[in-house]
TrEMBL record, chain A:
Organismal lineage: Eukaryota, Viridiplantae, Streptophyta, Embryophyta, Tracheophyta
Protein name: F-box domain-containing protein
Listed InterPro entries: F-box_dom (IPR001810), LRR_dom_sf (IPR032675)
Family matches, as Pfam families: F-box-like
Ranges for domain F-box: 17-56
Coiled coil start-end: none
From TrEMBL, chain B:
InterPro entries to which the protein is assigned, alphabetical: SKP1, SKP1-like, SKP1-like_dim_sf, SKP1/BTB/POZ_sf, Skp1_comp_dimer, Skp1_comp_POZ
Coiled-coil regions, chain positions: none
One GO process term, biological-process aspect: protein ubiquitination
Protein name, entry field: SKP1-like protein
Domain called SKP1 component dimerisation: residue spans: 111-157
Gene3D superfamilies the UniProt entry points to: Potassium Channel Kv1.1, Chain A
A Pfam family per the record: Skp1
Protein function: Involved in ubiquitination and subsequent proteasomal degradation of target proteins. Together with CUL1, RBX1 and a F-box protein, it forms a SCF E3 ubiquitin ligase complex. The functional specificity of this complex depends on the type of F-box protein. In the SCF complex, it serves as an adapter that links the F-box protein to CUL1.
Domain (SKP1 component POZ): residue spans on this chain: 1-60
Keywords annotated in UniProt: Ubl conjugation pathway
SUPFAM superfamilies: POZ domain (SSF54695), Skp1 dimerisation domain-like (SSF81382)
Assembly information from the UniProt record: Part of a SCF (SKP1-cullin-F-box) protein ligase complex.
Lineage of source species: Eukaryota, Viridiplantae, Streptophyta, Embryophyta, Tracheophyta
Recorded metabolic or biological pathway in which this protein acts: Protein modification; protein ubiquitination
Length: 322, 164
């Protein structure tokens, strides 16, 4: 530990700070490096603060199904149902989807692109996912309108939906307009909807526009059948921004998805060069402010009080180690 | 004017509007409103003058645009400038970052807390456990057997294929 009495070592840092630090490390660092640094870090990295967001999308793209299952079990046991975002690519089967739902107590953002989940399983499981507000079921080709409807009926606060498709994956399909109807009839609160390359018709999209009155962004790029008159859209559905159907590279100026799904916040500022401030750290204490005891004691702010460091952990209960 | 007093008894005079970025201080000021001079003094114990100084620098930099920060509506240029400044601000030794994190936590300054934690992550990224221990001056309390057997094997399966 440091020489100064003020400095508490890194192993004793408050758990939410450690959690945040670990969160920014790669999955590999978190699982194989951090636990070996010291026992308290090992405890911290296997606790809920480090796993409020579980993003294993990159890793899951190239892992075998049994490993994915093992990983989910491990991370769920560490997170203790505290995670509010889960991002996994390519769930291989329905049973893992059910496992996710069993641990989804705090879940707000669920991203399951390329997953093999089916309509009937979604119908069973969706009621347990009632709290989610953002859902990504892009490239999930085994599910269709029934699943979307089940999500819509259960997740009443859903404001964001991603349902993109690969052009080739829909080549053999006639129409996916039923999905548009499911969205329009069960997800009235949507503000952000992406359906790139989904086989929608103009009627389907118009139905969405008329039912989802809070829509701010609609991405129908690659939905070639959709013909919208820009003027009419502006007149009738004023606030919504429609992208497509032409495919152009477009960065959302103000990406609601990013904004609302707990990604890092953005800070800004006014131009102000360093040195424009005056630090008055003078030692002119003759007026006795220091002794002006009246009311001072209650104003005292303790940075990390004098108590044993264990205080910092008071109130946090780590889940049992797996 | 608010006066912050560090453990080495240095005084820092800060405009109330600036210090308000600390939610803790804002609450204290709110509680004490209407009192006499003593109300304006906030004692910050257990922390040497280096940290309040840095915190105030941070406040001043962020002071002018609180609404833009809240609504993420700043221009690209400004955002870039802020980023650069912040990179410089957090470019400090790891012990200072530790103190900043604790200060940001107890004074409740979320953006400072996040920024300092992020910088620490950057420092620790892609290193071995031994290097991390060295940087953060943490002594490894694992016994040799624990080290050899339990820890590495516990999670190594995750990457066995790709990183063998």
């Amino acid at each position: 530990m440091g020489e100064s009495s003020e400095f508490k070592g890194w192993e004793e840092l408050i758990p939410d700070a450690l959690g945040l630090i670990f969160r920014n490390l790669s999955l590999q660092d978190r699982l194989t490096v951090v636990p070996r640094v010291c026992k308290s870090w090992c405890r911290a990295v296997s606790g809920p603060y480090s796993w409020q967001e579980i993003d294993i999308e990159e890793w899951s793209k190239q892992c075998e199904p049994d490993k994915l299952e093992r990983m989910l079990h491990l991370l769920f046991s560490w997170s203790g149902r505290a995670f509010h975002r889960l991002c996994v690519s390519g769930l291989p089967n329905d049973s893992l989807f059910s496992l996710i739902a069993d641990h989804a107590g705090s879940l707000k953002t669920l991203e399951l692109p390329r997953s093999q989940i089916t309509d009937s399983m979604v119908e069973q499981v969706a009621p347990r996912l009632a709290g989610i507000t953002f859902l990504d079921v892009s490239y999930c080709t085994k599910m269709g309108p029934r699943a979307l409807e089940a999500f819509g009926r259960s997740c009443r606060s859903l404001v964001g939906l991603r349902r993109r498709m690969y052009p080739l994956a829909v080549a053999d399909k006639e129409s996916q307009d039923e999905e548009a109807h499911a969205i329009a009839s069960t997800m009235p609160k949507l503000r952000h909807l992406e359906t790139a390359y989904l086989l929608l018709s103009t009627a389907g999209v118009v139905k969405i526009l008329s039912n989802c009155r809070e829509l701010e962004l609609l991405d129908v790029r690659g939905c070639w059948e959709v013909k919208l008159d820009e003027k009419v859209v502006t007149e009738r559905y004023g606030r919504v921004k429609v992208l497509g159907p032409d495919v152009v590279d477009h960065c959302y100026e103000r990406n609601l998805w990013e904004e609302c799904s707990d990604s890092e916040s953005v800070y800004s500022w006014e131009t102000m060069d360093e040195g424009d401030f005056v630090l008055d750290g003078g030692s002119d204490e003759e007026d006795g402010i220091w002794d002006d005891g009246d009311g001072l004691e209650n104003l005292e702010l303790r940075f990390y009080g004098g108590g044993p460091h264990a205080d910092a952990f008071a109130g946090f209960h780590w889940p049992p180690s797996p | 004017m608010i006066t912050l007093i560090s453990s080495d008894k240095r005084k820092f005079h800060v405009l109330e509007e600036v210090a308000n970025q600390s939610l803790t201080i804002r609450d204290v000021i709110e509680d004490r409103r209407g009192r006499r001079r003593a109300d304006r003094i906030i004692l910050v114990t257990n922390i040497n003058s280096k940290i309040p100084e840095k915190v105030i620098v941070y406040w001043l930099r962020h002071f002018l645009m609180p609404e833009e920060i809240a609504h993420a509506s700043m221009s690209h240029k400004k955002a870039e400038k802020l980023k650069k400044w912040e990179a410089k601000f957090f470019d400090t030794d790891i012990d200072t970052l530790n103190d900043l994190i604790l200060a940001a936590d107890s004074l409740d300054i979320p953006s400072l807390f996040d920024g300092a934690c992020e910088k620490v992550s950057d420092i620790l990224k892609n290193r071995s456990a031994e290097e991390v221990g060295e940087i953060s001056k943490i002594e490894n309390e694992f016994t040799h057997e624990e080290e050899e057997e339990e820890i590495p094997s516990e999670n190594a399966w995750v990457w066995r294929n790709e990183f063998a």
